[in-house]
Amino acid sequence: MNILKKCIALIALLLLCSKLSFAQLGYNYSGYSVGLGGGVAIADADVNKKISKPAFFGTVSYNYSPFLTLTGELQVGKLAGGNIMTDKDTRAFVNNYKALTFYTDLQMGELIDYKDYIVLNVIKNIYIGSGFGVIYNKMAFVQRTSLIDTKYVFPGQDASTELTLPLRIGYEFKIYDFYREPSIRINVGYQVTLAYGEGLDGYNDPPQIFKNNHVDRYSLIGVGVKYNFGTPVSYRKPIHRF
Known about the structure:
The chain is mainly β. 12% of the residues lie in helices and 55% in strands. It has two helices and eight strands; from the N terminus they run H-E-E-E-E-H-E-E-E-E. The model is unreliable at 6-23 (pLDDT under 50).
């Protein structure tokens, strides 16, 4: 009789543990991520013609929560613009740049209660972000002498370093594993990076001669893939609902 009671108690305990374990499914996430990605970079500087060029990046992230990440990113690529034949001032440039950026991305899921709402479960992965960084500009080509007035040399630097401010918006697709934990993140995003200087295009002409309406900047439309790893951490609400 005692053996039977012990067996029943053991079965009940196992069922309880199984139920608790199942109830926890969908709450856990990994604390760290590494990723790679690429996209198209477009400079918006002092020359009129904008040219799309490839850019690539690698990331390391600390996941404060499934919807709030702190990221360090190394980005390399090309920026280009102008055309010596069609530009009214005969200016053109190609910049082989490297950028190191630190930023935070905040997703809607951190702020809203998306439980049992299909629409909210879709928009919970929309994110915005910002941070700070530095960009190293290295001109592969820059037209230094005016083809209209060959005595005029366009002032500027062939290499420079500038502080940057990234402004980000995008959407993250989460891929879940058997335990309903997000194991892969796919980010589709748009980023505008403001550069505080005149180094993106290599031109620093006097504003009295060449109109300069805004801070130099470049845009990046890109796709990145991140792999999550580390000890699972429990979130305050289910991450995966559908």
